[in-house]
Each structure stands twice: as structure tokens, then as C-alpha cells.
Amino acid sequence: MAEQSQQTPSAVAGPLLHLGCQSCGARLVLEPALRTTRCPYCAAPAVVERPPVPGVPEPVFALGFALTHMAAKAQVARWLRSRSRFTRSGIRSAAPGEVRGVYVPAYLYSVLAQARYRASIGENYQETETYTTTENGKTVTRTRTVTRTEWRPLEGELSSYVADVLVTASKGLDNAELEALEPFDLRGLARYTPALISGWLAEEPSLTLAQCEALARKEAVERVSGLLSRFMPGDSHRGLEHESRLDWEALDVCLLPVWVLAVKYAKDAPPLRVLVNGQTGAVHGKAPISPWKVLAAVVALLVVLAVGWLFMGGGR
Amino acid sequence: MSAEAVRVAPCQRCDCALEAEDLRCPICGLTAPPPPRAAVERARARVVRCDSCGAAVEYSVEAKAPRCDYCGSVTHVETTADPVEQAQHWLPFTVDTEAARGALMGFLGRGGFFRPSGLAQEASLESLRPVWWPAWMFDAGVDVSWTADSNAGSRRSDWAPHAGRTRFDFQGIPVPASRGLKVKECEALAPHYQRGSGQDTPRGPEGAHIERFEATRSGARRTVLGAVERLARERLQQGVIPGSRFRNVHVAVALSSLRTQRLALPVFVLAYRYRDKPYRVLVHGQDANVVLGEAPISPLRVAAVILAALLVLVGMLYGARVL
Fold it and tell me: What's the sign of the alpha-carbon dihedral A191, A197, A201, A205?
């Protein structure tokens, strides 16, 4: 139990909720960060509905799980086997443990980006130049064709919609982890209805709207700069700068399917957290590297080099 | 037709047309306004019940939908629908079968010098099929940002970079969706249709074949967006980008008020045989003067022309030597 509470940080402020089970009438006590629960007495799955809280929007979309928990486990087992030899011993042979399906809240953001950019565009041209060289002991003059680049300044505007930006709204799963699990196939998007998450673990957004907006804007501007670097004419470009104005922002809560696994690989180490995209099966985790193995490899390499050097030195 | 009658307000951000099932705008990604939901007054733990048996429903990965474990019924969930496209408007045939046959004869008779003589008499008509071919027709306003290299203002290099932003209004641009016709044929046929003559039901000769749209809605949108980009690129090179030679033409488009119609356009597909070889000819379904197709070339006449040209050449060379 202690491990579990470490994995799901209960960061949402507010007291525990006391609700009645609709099936058997028992009292349910649950954390405010959760959107679903299961009655411990009658096992009835329930979805929490509560009055709107300012700054915490209701989910608009949900992506349903498409990968069964057996398939998720198999993906993780394959992922563990394919880790590098330098990971800590036990990881490559560890068996995936308990699997939990969680609907992680995220914001789906779209915007009309208007960017002004400046860059130096390189246009290549060919030139013949003469040079002197020595051939058979004589100095001779020769010509050759060289490619040179002429740099021309360019300024302009770009306006484009940036849609499908996903940023995390959960403190339990940071944005880098979400990016590692992306892409999600948003064609499978469904309008949120409680039935979609019934019987599964679902979190409430635990990051504030302002934090998520900042993340989303950053990602949108990054996308614009990626777009711009592909947009530049010429043979090459440098010094690309841009400032983007973001108009018509829209963001909605979308629940994303993620399988969370704890892999226990050693008695003394905390379990390794592995995430699986519940739709596509993409696996993300940080397998710790064993410093001893790396050290041993470096030492072995040095020994080989030293022996080689001695051998070469002896041969001379 | 009742599904067509449901009018959906266009997207609030880009004013593009939405379909009834769209959860988000396919162009700009803005969420379509959700149906109003009853406000919750106090917190409660709601058990989602099965509509048929009343048992608790849970989301099932196998069914990819909420499913009742007791009776197995699956709850419908609103998703982004992606149905196969269906024609909305059928343009009527105004050319009848006889006129189409006459148009073929006229086409074969016109011929030109290289056609074998007596083609119109010897060719035997094998089949004449009226067909409705599918196409999309769109109107859109496009905010195009572009960059390109052109020869205008170039210095040492042949190329100089240019950038700009312009607005195009596209009206009634056809995008063929037919697999049976070639893109070139579709492009030649499309401008001769009478816009606005669309009807809700197919009307034409008996046994007319209706070629189905094979694309789904998302595929259709991709095709239309591809056509917008291609067209924008073409128009930019006709006077917008300075210069006369271009390379690296990049465009970024922000569409507004995109409206797409799905049309079925009439055409006659004729096949005739001349000396055991089949040939295909298309006769426009609304304008019998538009005939596209292939016709045999007389090898004798071609040989005669080449021979004549050679003779003239030899004669000239000879003449030059004598002089």
C-alpha cells in the first residue's frame, strides 16, 4: 500500500469525499483527485459527479483503451528484454508486475498561430577559381569549380492552425512522459461520457489551468518553429528567429488511456515505473544503468587497449 | 434525406462547414459545441447502468466501448464518425443516348489527317454506358503564407529568396474522386457542367451506373486539402511570386469557410472497336460538344508524311549542293 500511495501523489487540495454507493448504500471514502471508485462491499463501479469547480474544467473527450492488459504486459516484457546490457542486473529478466489502467487527464489545445520571422537564406552558386599547385616539381596554374553561398536576408509572416497539441494535466505523469507516449490516434476520440471510464481508474486534472496553458503555448510555439525551419527557401538557412502571436486559443480536457506497471527487479531497489500507451502500445520507462557494469566495461576496454599498446610497442 | 436536413452551424473559429457527427473542426481543431448537460448540484458516486438490464456497465477493452457484462449490450459512444462518402447532388443528363452516339460519330469523322479514312464507317460501337462519376466541389477562402526562390532580384546566385502572404478565394473548384476516369479526363470534363443544376435524386437514362465514392470522410478532407495546397502553389506562380522561374515553393494555408459538396457528374463512356482494337471515348453528359478519347492513327498516312518530309529534305540538300 505504501508503494501505491507513492505512485499516485494525492496533490489535489480538499478533504476526502464521503459518498454513498448507489448500489448497496455503503459509505465510500475517496480521494478528491480521483474521478472513479469501486465500492469495496458490492464491487459496483461508480463515476464521481460533482458540482463544477472554478478552474477545473469537466472532461470533454476521452480516448478509450484499445490494448488489453495482457497485451500491455506482453509489450512491457518485450521492452524489458530489449534493454541495454548496461542496465542494472535483473531488469532484462524481470517479470512485469501489477498492471493498472489509468485515464490520465490532459489538455487538447488548438490555436491560430501568426508568426513573424527573420532569417538569412543561403543561395548557392558556382564559381571558377584559379589556383596554383605543384605537379612533378613544377608550379602550374589550374582552374576548378567551387560552390559558394550567398546570404540574403528574408522576412515574412506565417499563419497556420496548430491543432492536436496534447499536454498533461496530471501531476502524476509529467509532460516529458506524455510526449514519450505520444502520438495518440485522435481519430479515435470520443465525447466524454461517464460510461467510458466506468470500472477504470480516472484522475481529475491536478495541474492548474494556467500551468497547462503555459505548457501548451510552449509546445505550439515549438511546433511553429519546426514548421518554419521546413518552410525556409534556399539551399540552407541560418539565424532563424520568430515571434508568434497565438490567437483563438481553445483547450479542452481529454482523458488518455495509460497502462501503469511497476516492475520489481531487485529486492533493495524501488520498483521501476513503466508506462504503456493504452491505444498504440508504445512503452516508456527509464531503466536505471548499473554504474558497476559501465565501470567494468570501461576497465575491460582499457585493459584491451593497454595490452594492444604493449604488443605494438614490443613489436617495434 | 432526413440526415441531410440536419443543419450544423459552421465552426466558430474558421467558419468551415461541420458535419452533424463532427466532434471537432477538421480544419482548425476547435471543439464543436457539446450538447448541454444537466448541472450537477452535489457530489455523488454515480453507477452507470445498462439501458437494457439495469446492471452496472464498465468500459471493455475487447469491445472498445462500455459493455454490460450481464446482457452483453454495448452502450453507444459518440465518436468521430468517418463514414464512406455519399453523393449529395446529382447533375442530370441533358444529352441523351442518341446524341451521345452522334457525338462519337462526329468525333470519329472529324478525325484529322492522320485518322484512317473510313474510320467512322468501319468502327463498331461496342458499348455505351451512362455513368455518374463522383467529385467534390469546394468553395474556400485561403490565407496563404508562402516562401520561394525565384530569379527576380538575384545577384551572384541564380536564385533570390522571397516571402509573402496573400489571400485566395476559391469558388467551385472540382476535385475528382473517380477511379474509373483519369485525372486529366476529369479536369477536362469538369468545367463544362452547369453549376446549380444539382438535384437530390439521380435522373437520367435507364440503367445509368453510379460510381461510388470510395473515400471516407477523412480521406475526402485530405484530398480536398491537398487540392487547395496544389492550387495555391499554382496560382502563386502565376503572378504573385515575382520572377519567371521558381523553386522551393512552400505554402502554409489557413482555410476559412470551407464548404464542400459531394457531386455525381454525368458522362457517357463509349467503347468502339476498329480493326480488332478497342478504343474508349467519353462524351460529356451535359454538353455533347465535349468529346474526349482516343482514336486510331493510320500507319500508312504517318509513313507517307515522313517519306514526304524526307524527300523534301533530300531535295533541299541536293539543291544546296548543286548551287
Answer: positive
